[in-house]
Amino acid sequence: MTQPLMRRTIASIINAINTSDGAGVRLRRSLGSGEGTRLDPFLMLDEFSSENPGDYIAGFPSHPHRGFETVTYILDGHMRHEDHLGNQGDLKSGGVQWMTAGRGIIHSEMPQQEEGRMRGFQLWINLPAKEKMKPAGYRDITPEEIPVHNLSGGGQIKIIAGSLQTADQLFQGPIAGLTTEPIYLDVSLPAESSFSHPVAAGMNAMAYVFEGSVQIDETSIPAHTAAIFSDGGYVTLQAGAEGTRFLLLAGRPINEPIAQYGPFVMNTAAEIEQAVRDYQSGRLTTI
Ligand code: FE
């Protein structure tokens, strides 16, 4: 006998707070905005969106990371990436950079446009202890590499990580094979249509609404809000009266202790002290 799949309900809601980071980039932070706002394996989710270059042009000058992954998804605008190893990348509208900081990276992330809207997301995904010190690596994903499923009633789904099975087609996102088994979908829905997606039991899942609103059960989730799902086998979200656009994120929890100091995320305080010493002595990336 197999159990019927359970629909996931809402376990909690996190309203994004306005903050700034880097050299003064204004952003909305949901995950990682305070005590109890992580969702294992996700550490932080920032949404940046502004028409005003003063809110973003200073960018994120040279800074380190160790022990996790950063996923940058640009909806509008143009970001240039450079690291201490001489790697360079241009992240354009619709593109994704999936960076594994591993044992260490020192990089800058700088907006290139001087006018117009800059909009996108940065998600931090933790690494298990045994992968925290692996060499740094990148996946630069162009918009063309991201499968798009157009819904018959309007709307579309972009599959950045994980897969989407429709009645007659399997869409496989460009990111696969990670220990945390991430699902990262960008879902646009017209008014009052709904979307269901399987998320295996034991995975953590959330939706981050960034346009319009969604209804989950009887609860309306407005824009700039994260809805954390309970455990179960699938999620169902219904668009509000103005339609909606949201990220559906899910991942396999790591279930290890977290010690974080800014851009270093390890398991113990001693490992954080080591990371700070390594950075100060210029050995962050070479140990
Ligand atoms: Fe960074």
Q: What is the average of the pLDDT values?
A: 95
Order of helices and strands: EEEEEEEEEEEEEEEEEEEEEEEEH
Specify Rg, calculated over alpha carbons: 19 Å
Q: Give the count of structural domains.
A: 1
What would you call the shape?
A: globular
Uncertain runs with pLDDT below 50, 5 residues or more? none
Tally of DSSP β-strands: 24
Polypeptide structure, described:
This protein has 287 residues and is mainly beta. The protein has a single domain (10-281), classed as Jelly Rolls, CATH 2.60.120.10. 4% of the residues lie in helices and 52% in strands. It has one helix and 24 strands. The strands form five sheets. Strands 1, 13, 14, 17, 18, 19, 20, 21 and 22 form a nine-stranded antiparallel β-sheet that branches. Strands 2-3-4-11-6-9-12 form a seven-stranded antiparallel β-sheet, with no helix packed on it. Fe (iii) ion binds next to strand 5 and strand 10.
